[in-house]
Amino acid sequence: MARVFGFKGCRKIRGSQIRNLLETKDVFLFDCDGVIWDGEHAITGAPKVVNSLIRHGKNVFFVTNNSTKPRENYVHKFYRLGFTDVMQEQIFSSSYCSALYLKDVAKVNGHVFAIGCEGLLKELRDAGVALTDEMDSPEDTIAKCALTPGVKAVIVGHDDTFTFLKLAKASCYLKDPNCLFLATDSDPWHPLRDGRILPGSGSLAAALEVASGRKATVIGKPSRFMFECISSQFRGVDPAQCLMVGDRLETDMLFGANCGLDTMLTLTGVSQMKEAQDYKDSQHSTNQSFVPDYVVDTIADFLPAFEDMD
Amino acid sequence: MARVFGFKGCRKIRGSQIRNLLETKDVFLFDCDGVIWDGEHAITGAPKVVNSLIRHGKNVFFVTNNSTKPRENYVHKFYRLGFTDVMQEQIFSSSYCSALYLKDVAKVNGHVFAIGCEGLLKELRDAGVALTDEMDSPEDTIAKCALTPGVKAVIVGHDDTFTFLKLAKASCYLKDPNCLFLATDSDPWHPLRDGRILPGSGSLAAALEVASGRKATVIGKPSRFMFECISSQFRGVDPAQCLMVGDRLETDMLFGANCGLDTMLTLTGVSQMKEAQDYKDSQHSTNQSFVPDYVVDTIADFLPAFEDMD
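^ inputs. structure came back:
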């Protein structure tokens, strides 16, 4: 099938097509939620796929916008769900990459106000970032609460203890134009069981963008920064040799497009084939960045390829 | 000074110019915060201006996006600060107008989930709107909390007890495309003393828009709806006879432009002359809607006109 330059294929592949693709790629980047697991359940066959790729000498990385857990918890989760060959160095979470950004790129020297879960706070502390430590009481209001002087950055990630006071304090810190404004990611929401919705970091960041009149620098996908973190730690990673596998067109596929990687949509998560096809058929050329090169029902479709390769 | 058609004047007026304007207008719409008062302090001279307009037979209305207080509290505040001639019928708050919208326009028949202060909740209850009454405990999470079935509308206003759980519940209700999504107003933030920032309803609405993937219908300024509420209750209000006086270009001046009213910026609040001039000088024709027709330092500049008029 001829590939038209500038337009992604959105091509459903199987069998020998998958084997050929696996043979041409050296580096596999996987999103986690909806790709290799769904909450506390591994996607059927996914552990065997990941372990097989590693044993066949492929470089495998995990790029997740989920900022709720520190990487060491991810290592335990990988092991618990049967991904027995994954090591901490392969895991690039938006929390970890945010810490890298603050230390190595922004070289922040001073206090950081963080809105987020323990996963974000621990990665920041582990990287040596100094967090503000005002002790707010439930009676505190923004008109009369403690504010740390000279805060150098505000970072917002997923936070299920988000409150109006946190939003207001962050808005006050961001009045200083020298105070950096970061978001771990811009994910709008996440699906829960029973059709419920979990608002994402992108939702909290939007509130803060409006209240502060500023735009956040986004660390996670679709920003290129996570790929830059991988490239700086693993020399010789060539975009042409990479395949980005994800379940969300607006984050994973766009991330791949932004980094010059071939992309694969797996249909075990948020986005479905019709949405990909709609983007492909769209008249807006910018929508082409959301279109995957390849589509599989599940990464378990990789399994027969290994039988051939063995 | 010749007035170029299609372009607002941004004209600083004083003395006899103000007297002439007051004589040609029958209806005066005032924003409150930053125009007639600043927190618990009346703008110097403002009570005398408002009382004089009323005594000279002018129709005076107050259009405020502040949704935190029910109208009866506003009556007390007006009286307390010296605006002794103001009655409840003259006050159009975003809370009151939201209740009118739900009852008279949307004709909502079922439960409404409200994110807001007591001012909003009371106006809704007074209008006969049925509010959800789930009792959340601090341990509740969105994965396992009570959700009222068949919620017909979600409304978001200023709420200093805003939490992640409220945001998440609202996002779940809005999955039903038949569930209306309203915002009392889209104000991004409000100034506090000491340079602190109070995030506005627009900030909370933005979070919910991202988490739900939907756009809120905005009740307050700059939407036309508040003016429609006035017109429906006071027949014969002619836009050509109205002057809208406010302190914020992006809400008050745009509201006036949207409703076909002449507009006046007073410099006792958020927006300053330079911002108005920048909009006027902008190449984007849409920015002309933010430009006031007239500018005064304070509405106390009206006072000499009454001396002439007496």
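The interface with chain A takes residues 141-143, 147, 159-165, 167-168, 171-172, 175, 188-189, 192-193, 195-200, 202-204, 206-213 of chain B (CB under 8 Å). Residues 1-6 of chain B have pLDDT under 50 and may be disordered.
thumbs up if we can close this ticket
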